[in-house]
Write the structure tokens for this entry.
Amino acid sequence: AEPWPENAALYQQLKEEQILLSDNASSLAVQAFLQMCNLPIRVVCRANAEYMSPSGKVPFIHVGNQVVSELGPIVQFVKAKGHSLSDGLDEVQKAEMKAYMELVNNMLLTAELYLQWCDDVTVEEITHPRYGSPYPWPLNRILSYQKQWEVRRKMKAIGWAGKTLEQVLEDVDQCCQALSQRLGTQPYFFNKQPTELDALVFGHLFTILTTQLTTDELSEKVKNYSNLTAFCRRIEQQYFEGHDKD
Amino acid sequence: VISQPAKILNFLRKQKYNADYELSAKQGADTLAYIALLEEKLLPALLHTFWVEAENYCSVTKPWFASRIAFPLSLYLPGKMSREALNRILLTRGGPPLYSLTEVEAQIYRDAKECLNLLSKRLGTSQFFFGDTPTTLDAFVFGFLAPIYKVCFPRVQLQEHLKQLPNLCRFCDDILTCYFRLTVSGHSPGGQDMADANLQKLTQLVNKESNLIEKMDDNLRKSPQHPPRKLTTLKLAAGGEESPLNRLSP
């Protein structure tokens, strides 16, 4: 396999003005994963990162002459290059890890998307201004509405459109409780060594804890579980100290 | 459908009796995670096999459902369910780089097969997912696997894959014989009609999960609170429209 090049880059939207909660979480998860594998990567912010991505989702990495997007395919890609965090796990543990990753995607990510695109207050005050901010009027409004329509269609198909915000927050609480119970008092989900599950959970929880939204309810749900906040702090100190906090 | 994991964990936490009496907190969390895995990876392929795959839909699913629904709803409802299933598959799994329906189909079947492999590894040689007594997770997995395993479709790639995983087949057969009074070959005392009615109920399980879990919840709340007996056999009334799992409580 080719060695990891020096100029590997991770693309996401503009950090200060444009990126949204869910994309930030996904991007942070990938960054954490690469840090855990000890693979250097620099973060490049582009307004049209979403359109550059081969799957339409951020983040994506540009390594050598290949472009790979989203955590799942990136984990596979990195494994093909000879780096893996989950080699030490047995078959049952690998099954468990995959199941928990689906839980996070199914509940946390969907809840984040719901909050940003289906909750009217958040949409008006945060999402619309941020999402289209690099573009002039009327393009910014058009792009926002288009994305909103797309996300709402998807929510309707999976049955989340009928949920109220309280129900969504309740779901987030259930998910955090499950994660907290699984983590217990261990440093990482599979005891001594971090895996892609740790990276994914860190990405989402850290973003929820540190993003300013219209209400604090979402981050309060996570703060209820002290082992999860300790987990985030631990990973932040170990893998992000001395780098820019992305 | 997505609200199921929440209802189930709620159910686990607040009740702490019945099927999940002996589960630890971690196992409760595992239940939630595996259910999410099933819904994300297995459900699209299941929906596809039943509702979207043209041969399957026309020769099995549509006549089956239409025969049990009153006219004129029977003309409209199966078609609507089929369209909704396709919609759901395309919206959740159909983005770039998969551009055509065949690519999406290939991907969802790959994911479903991987999911079945993972379940098989997790089950190993135990009788149920958390030891010797059945739990909510077993009910859920059974609800997904039994239709794949038992319904005779013309296009059966998922069933063939499942048959290569003997511990999952044994798991389904165990539950069928213990809780549904069917012999493994599928013939019951009531004859072929009863077998058809039972199989249809299993199919409805996939589509009406929320009703199912709510009924189970209510039923178990009303029942006396004590640990479950192991593998009691139950009678099934013929022709009833209620879900079979309703009868699990004493």
In short: Chain B touches chain A through 34 residues (CB under 8 Å).
